[in-house]
Design goal:
- By secondary structure, the protein is of the alpha/beta class.
- It contains 16 helices and 12 strands.
- It has an 8-stranded parallel sheet with strand order 4-11-10-9-8-7-6-5. A two-stranded antiparallel sheet has the order 1-12.
- It is globular and about 70 Å long.
- Bound molecules: ligand FNR.
- The site of ligand FNR has 22 residues, from α3 and α16.
């Protein structure tokens, strides 16, 4: 028996129970504050939140072809339910990077969350910790990684947290960020490969809206001793110089596969490469000694006209087999999407925009609502389709249209 087959040491959580909680609250006269169909959140956010922030979150590269491709790629697959299989007891837990999680979902790294809600990343982090699920904290967070770790520990000491690296040009700053993350209990490193340059994003361009240039989403850099060492004056005395320093070191488009050795040398835990879309790149990740990949096109925010992430997933999962842990994001909006991604070869999915909208609309409670809806729907979809555990899902559970 491998670690990933080991039985769940803690009682499985009944995610579907959220459904009856909602109906029972209804008897007491309360209905959910946010939609339970998570695909509607964007529409509600567009109505209620400011045009700059909502444009930044909903926006995409170019005219949005890749965002649409992500949805189309998932929608092309259909679930083929099976009957009479005793699904009364289910266990959604999965083993990921040596830790058992209660469900195959983590919050994707989403930067600058303070534009959505003043409670920002700590609120999202508390929501994840309250559900026992990991948050992947973005390097571009509006709150320092230490503060976010503290927020999670306040809910559950040692709550599972992972760190996403926008790999800076500056080696000292890179090492400093990694050291701080490890010290604050972030266990898995996610290295984003698809954002060496910011893509052409018309919704942001039309509003000339980029929060980083106002010093928002730069907390990890501005608080970093190695970053500060490169400034003539403290950040608060010359914000423009600090922003310029940040912009110059944010990413290094000259990086190649050989550079991964540097990260290996400075990070003891698992490393996951985020933004892989070609089977050959996935194989290179395995050859480079990486532990996992996220099949992702950054939610259609980087290359307009790129392949839908779910179209890339089966070929990649097949190519890497057991060599890497394959995760998936880009387009997950409901329990059926989680089901499909797992059936196509992902071990777990990352949830992106829906939780950012949940945060914007209702703070920590909004993020918890989103997570609980997603997992209740996934649990029910799993059961109604004849399965009881994520590990049972294979492409046999699906059929492809067109
Ligand atoms: C992101 N994403 C992202 N990814 C990353 O590695 N670091 C980051 O800081 C961010 N920031 C970010 C901000 C916003 C507003 C969005 C919407 C996305 C990408 C994110 O991790 C994930 O790949 C996508 O959100 C997945 O697409 P969907 O499912 O949200 O459409």
């Amino acid at each position: 028996m491998t670690a990933s087959d080991a039985p769940n040491p803690v009682p499985a959580k009944d995610w579907s129970a959220f459904q009856y909680e909602i109906y029972l609250n209804g008897i007491a006269g309360t209905v959910p504050r946010l939609p339970t169909d998570l695909s509607r959140l964007e529409q509600v956010a567009e109505r209620r939140l400011g045009p700059g922030p909502v444009g930044y979150v909903a926006g995409a590269a170019g005219d949005g072809k890749t965002v649409r491709a992500n949805r189309e790629a998932l929608d092309r697959w259909r679930i083929v339910p099976r009957m009479l299989r005793d699904v009364h007891q289910r266990d959604l837990s999965v083993e990921l990077f040596g830790t058992r999680l209660p469900a195959p979902v983590a919050l994707a790294p989403v930067g600058v969350l303070s534009i959505m809600h003043p409670d920002a990343e700590p609120a999202a982090a508390r929501a994840a910790a309250a559900q026992g699920l990991p948050l992947i904290l973005s390097t571009a967070s509006s709150t320092t990684l230490e503060q976010v770790a503290e927020a999670m520990d306040g809910v559950a000491a040692g709550a599972e947290r992972w760190f996403q690296l926008y790999w800076p040009k500056d080696r000292e700053v890179t090492v400093s960020l990694l050291t701080r993350a490890a010290k604050s209990g972030y266990r898995v490193l996610f290295v984003t490969l698809d954002t060496w340059l910011l893509a052409w994003r018309p919704r942001d361009l039309d509003q000339a809206y980029l929060p980083f240039l106002r010093g928002v989403g730069t907390a990890n850099y501005f608080s970093d001793p190695a970053f500060q060492a490169g400034l003539a004056k403290p950040v608060h005395e010359d914000l423009n110089a600090a922003v310029l320093h940040f912009a110059q070191m944010f990413a290094d488009p000259a990086k190649t596969w050989a550079d991964l050795e540097f990260l290996r040398a400075h990070w003891d835990g698992p490393i996951v490469l985020k933004g892989v879309l070609h089977p050959d790149d996935a194989l290179r990740a395995a050859d480079a000694g990486m532990d996992g990949i996220v099949v992702s096109n950054h939610g259609g925010r980087q290359v307009n006209g790129a392949i839908g992430a779910a179209d890339a997933l089966p070929g990649i999962a097949q190519a890497v087999g057991d060599r890497l842990t394959v995760l998936f994001d880009s387009g997950v909006r409901g329990g059926d999407d989680v089901f499909k991604a797992l059936a196509l070869g992902a071990k777990a999915v990352l949830l992106g925009r829906p939780y950012a909208y949940g945060l914007g609309l209702d703070g920590q409670a909004g993020v918890e609502h989103v997570l609980r809806c997603l997992l209740a729907e996934f649990d029910l979809t799993l059961a109604l389709s004849g399965y009881t555990e994520p590990g049972q899902l294979t492409a046999d559970a699906l059929t492809r249209e067109r």
